[in-house]
Design goal:
This protein has helices at about 5-15, 95-100, 120-135, 150-160, 190-200, 205-210, 220-225, 245-255, 280-290; strands spanning about 50, 55-60, 65-70, 80-85, 105-110, 140-145, 165-170, 230-235, 260-265. The chain has about 290 residues and is of the alpha/beta class. The protein has a single domain (about 40-290), classed as Alpha/Beta hydrolase fold, catalytic domain (Rossmann fold).
Length: about 290
């Protein structure tokens, strides 16, 4: 039987990680992985091991930040992976990452805090990517940008489009003038706006307002690299208004020849993130890696 088909069928019969497990369980994982075999080089040197949603997780330090890698029970060919840039524990059951873990995808995160995709955070993401590659993960990621995580995902993707298979944005911030700046119709967040300017090194607000490194400004490299985009948005979102964020990305990306799908949730605001049935997000990621 074809190996890829066998792995796909096997993924259907593995028990759900949510059944009989505590999602917050951080107990030491059983010694069942290749990384724990003394004869096998450890892919994550110095890592501490615990559990995340029933899966083995490895935590280690990269460029001053804590990174973690959640491993599937059986890795898919090529070791594809998803990367939630921010809020990795928010609405997890609704974003499809658990289903992808069951189907052989690794899942990763780097804890850079509330830094809004700042230049320093991008440097840390670069170091993390190199660590992931040394650990054996595939060359391209599926980025998950939840809310302000959209800034992190898109800014890193524009920096390295060849490292990105797709971006799943969930109510993503695509222009920081909209949020946290609040310069449009949204609520904004004055405290976050001040913090963002500090992280980016802007001397004045005026400097921030003319910045051309927002996701809405950096779509051409992604379109050229044929990075696929999916956004899930609530049509009544007054925190990250669709018209100032996703709608701008969709118009500009399609004009550049890029492929983008937008799933609208009528009557829904900024929360809850994700979908009642995340199957469309799962299918989107799998198709972006050439699998179904």
């Amino acid at each position: 039987m074809n190996r890829a088909l066998w792995l796909g069928l096997a993924g259907l019969v593995i028990a759900s990680p949510l059944l009989g497990t505590d999602p917050t369980d951080s107990s030491t994982a059983p010694a069942t992985t290749a990384a724990q075999d003394p004869s096998t080089p450890a892919p994550w040197p110095g890592a501490r091991q615990d559990r995340w949603r029933g899966f083995v997780r490895h935590r280690f330090t990269v460029d001053g930040a804590t990174g973690w890698v959640v491993e599937p029970r059986q890795a898919a060919p090529g070791k594809p992976w998803t990367w939630c840039l921010e809020f990795p524990d928010a609405f997890t059951e609704r974003t499809g990452v658990l289903q992808l873990l069951e189907q052989g995808f690794h899942h990763v995160h780097l804890e850079v805090g509330n830094t809004f995709g700042s230049p320093r955070a991008l440097e840390q993401f670069d170091a993390f990517y190199q660590a992931l590659r040394r650990g054996g993960l595939g060359p391209r990621a599926a980025l998950v940008g939840i809310s302000r995580g959209g800034l992190y995902a898109y800014r890193w993707a524009a920096r390295h489009p060849e490292r990105v298979a797709c971006i799943y944005g969930d109510a993503p911030v695509c222009d920081f003038k909209s949020w946290p700046g609040g310069k449009g119709t949204g609520k904004g967040s004055p405290g976050d706006w001040t913090q963002l300017q500090r992280h980016y090194g802007f001397a004045t607000e005026a400097e921030a307002l003319v910045f051309t490194g927002n996701p809405v400004d950096q779509l051409a490299p992604l379109a050229k690299a044929k990075v696929r985009l999916l956004h899930v948005v609530g049509d009544t979102d007054d925190v990250v208004p669709v018209a100032e964020n996703t709608a701008v990305v969709a118009s500009r990306y399609r004009a550049l020849g890029g492929r983008m799908e937008v799933i609208h949730k009528p009557g829904v605001g900024h929360h809850p993130h994700g979908l009642d049935d995340p199957a469309p997000a799962v299918a989107f990621v799998r198709e972006s890696f050439g699998t179904r």
